[in-house]
Amino acid sequence: MLANYAFIGVFFIAALTFPLVPLILAFLLGPKRPTPIKQSTYECGLEVVGDIWVQFKVQYYLYALAFVIFDIEVVFLYPWAVAYNQLGLYALGAASVFLIILFAGLVYEWRKGALEWV
């Protein structure tokens, strides 16, 4: 029983070690010569004009969140559509419930005015 968890422990340690070791080595061995040019903000090779910290409207994030939700919907529905002939009536019902929940979320966003561009 404990041997089964040993594999999980080994993978957990490997998952922590592989990304952390290069980061720590780069921090310890990398050159540290800060200059004003290196510390300045870089944006697409152009000089920054105005304040660097610009506050974005929350509406951009709402659109992005709605896009991600409906984009992930496609990821979940694609395997279902590919294997539709082999699936039974239960899978059709499960996909219908999934789509109804997503449609309800879309209607909720629409009624709250989250999709209105101001």
Coarse morphology: flat
Q: How would you characterize the largest beta sheet?
A: none
- The overall pLDDT, averaged over residues, is 84
| CATH A-level architecture | Up-down Bundle
State the helix count.
Answer: 4
| Count of structural domains | 1
Distance between the ends: 59 Å
Give a count of the beta strands, DSSP E runs of length 2 or more.
0
Share in β-strands: under 5%
Summarize the helix and strand pattern as letters. HHHH
Structural class: mainly alpha
CATH domain class: Mainly Alpha
CATH topology: Methane Monooxygenase Hydroxylase, Chain G, domain 1
**Percent in helix:** 55-70%
As residue ranges, the low-confidence spans are: none
What Rg, in angstroms, do the CA atoms define?
A: 25 Å
Task: Provide key terms for this protein.
118 residues, mainly alpha, Methane Monooxygenase Hydroxylase, Chain G, domain 1, 0% strand
Describe this entry's structure for a reader.
There is one protein chain. With 118 residues, the protein is an all-alpha fold. The protein is built from 4 helices and no strands. It has one domain (2-112): Methane Monooxygenase Hydroxylase, Chain G, domain 1, CATH 1.20.58. Helix content is 69%, strand content 0%. The chain is flat, with a radius of gyration of 25 Å. The model has no long low-confidence stretch (mean pLDDT 84).
